[in-house]
Amino acid sequence: MAVALGRAAFLNSLYMLVGNGGQMIASLGVFLYLARVLSPADFGAMGMAAALVDLLTVFGRFGQVEALLQRGADEQSIRSTSFWLLMLIGIGNLLLIVALAEPMAYLTHASAVAPVMLVLAAVPLLQNVGQVNEAIMRHEMRYRGIAVRNVTATVTGAIVAAVLAMNGFGVFALAAQKLVFTIVYSLAVVVARPWLPSRNFVRAETRRLLTTGFDVTISNTLQMANGRIVDLCIGFFLGVVALGQTRVAWRLYDFSLQLVIAPLSSVSYSLFARVREQREAMQQAYLQYAEIISLIAAPIFVGVSLLSSDAMVLLAGRKWEGSASVLAMLTLSILASCMSLIFSPVMVAKGRTDIIRRQALLQTVANALLTVIAAQFSVTAVVVTYVLRMYAFAFLNVRYMNATLEVTWSVFVRRMRPIVLATIGLAACGIAVREALFASPVLVRIIAVSAVGALGYIAVIVAGDRAGIWPGYVAEFLSGARTLVRRQRPTPAEG
User: CA 385 to CA 229: how far, in whole Å?
Assistant: First the structure.
C-alpha cells in the first residue's frame, strides 16, 4: 500500500479520531440516558424542529471554512470579509427560524415544535462567530486544539441536558444540549485561536468567497437535507412517534459514522488541498483514504447491523425495540457513505465544486420524490429507499472522482476487493453464531458475534494474501502503518 500521508496528517487524523471519539462517546452516553427518560414523542418533536434548524445551520456556514482553506486563511482582509458575510447570514437565519416556528408547529400538529425552534433560533448565528478562527486552525493543522474543544463543548452540553431531563424539562433538555454545545464550542475556538476582524470588506474577494462557499454549502446543505427530508416526511405522514423511533436509530447510526469516518474525512480537506497539484500524490491519497476508511468502517457497521436488535434493547430499553430494524438497514449503507464522505474533499481540492453542487442537487431531488412516495407505506419502505439511493449516487461519486484524478476502475476495484470479500466473510460468520446462540443471554450473544465476526474478517484478508488473490496486501498495510508512525517528520504546525 503506497503511503501518501505524512506523519502530520496521520497525527492530526488521530487527534480528530480521539477528539471526535470523546465527543461522540459523551454524546452517546447522554443520548442513551435521555432515551430512557424521554418519550418517542419528545424525540419526534425535537426531530421536527431540528430538521429546519440544522439545515439553516449548515447553510449558514456558507462553506467559508473551505473557501478560506482554498485561499485566504492567512490574509487579514480576506478573513475579515468572510467574517462579516457570516454575521449577515447568521442574523438572517435567526430571523427566519423565529418567523417559521408557529407555522411548523401547525403543519406538524405538534405544539412543542414552536418553543423548541425559538430556543434554537440563535444557533446558526452563534456557530458563525468562530468559523474564521476554525479555518485558521485548520490551515495551521491544529486539529488537536479543535478536538479538545469539541469534547469540552459536548461534555458541557451533555451535563446540561442530563440535569434538565432529570428535573422534568422533557424535550427542552434536547434543545438545550444543542444550544449549549454551540455556545461553548464557538467561545472555545475563539479563545484557542484569538483573532479579531477588521473593518475591511474586500469586494473583489467577496465574489470568490461567495462562489466557492455557495458550491460547497449547497452540497453540504443538500446532504443534510437528505436526512431531514426523511424526518419531515415520516413526521408529516406517519406521525411524531414514528419519527421518534426512527431518529433514535438514525442517531446511533450517525454516532458510529462520526466516530469512525468523519475524523479522516475532515483531515482530508487539508491533505488533498496540499497535494492538489501533484498528480500521483493526489491519486495515492484518494485511493488510500478510500481504502482505510472502508477497511475500518465496513466490519464495524456490518457488525452493528447483525446486533441491532440486541444492542438497541441493551442500550436504550425495550420501548425502542422498534428502532432496531431501522438501524440494521441504515448500517448496510456504510460503503456508500464512505465514498460519499471523501467526494467533497477531493472535488474541492481539484476546484470542481460545480460537480459537488450538481450531484447534491440531483441527489436531493431524487431523495425528496422517492421519500414522499415511500412514506405513504411505512418507515421500512422509507429507509430501504434511502439506502438504495445512497448506493446509486455513491457509484456516480466514485465515477466522477476516478475520472477527475485519472484513476482507472480496475485499480479502484483491486484496492477495494479485499475489503468487500472480507466483509461478506464477517457477515456469514456473524449470522451463523447469532443463530446458534439465539437462546443465549443478550450480552453473551453480542460478545460472541463480535469476536467471531472480527476473526472471520481478518481471516479472509490473510487467506487472500497467502493464496495470492491480493498478494502482499498485509505486508504493505503494516509497512505503511510503520512508515506513518516512525519515518515521517512532523510539521511545526502539528500542535
Answer: 13
Residue 266, H or E segment: helix 262-274
Q: Say which DSSP state 277 is in.
A: T
What is d(CA 175, CA 271) in angstroms, rounded to the nearest whole number? Answer: 35
Domain residue ranges in the chain? 7-487
Measured CA to CA, the distance from residue 150 to residue 350 in angstroms comes to 29
C-alpha to C-alpha distance for 271 and 488, rounded to whole angstroms: 15
Instruction: Report pLDDT digits (tens) over 419-473.
Output: 899 999 999 999 999 888 888 888 888 899 999 999 999 999 889 888 888 888 7
Q: How far apart are CA 258 and CA 224, in angstroms?
A: 14
CA distance 218 to 198: 28
- Cell 496528517 -> residue: 9
Question: How many Å apart are CA 39 and CA 110, to the nearest integer?
Answer: 14
Question: Dihedral through CA 122, CA 123, CA 128, CA 134, nearest 10?
Answer: 150
CA angle (223 as vertex; 108, 226 as ends), nearest 5 = 35
Residues 337, 226: contact at Cβ < 8 Å? no
Q: What sign does the CA torsion over 196, 201, 202, 206 have?
A: positive
Give the global pTM.
0.68
pLDDT at residue 388, as a whole number: 92
3-state SS string over 25-44? Answer: HHHHHHHHHHHHHCCHHHHH
Is the model's pLDDT at 10 over the cut of 70? Answer: no
Q: What is the mean pLDDT of the chain?
A: 80
Q: What is the pLDDT of residue 486?
A: 45
Burial class (CB in 10 A: 0-12, 13-18, 19+), 494: middle
**Residue-wise pLDDT tens digits, 281-292:** 888 888 878 888
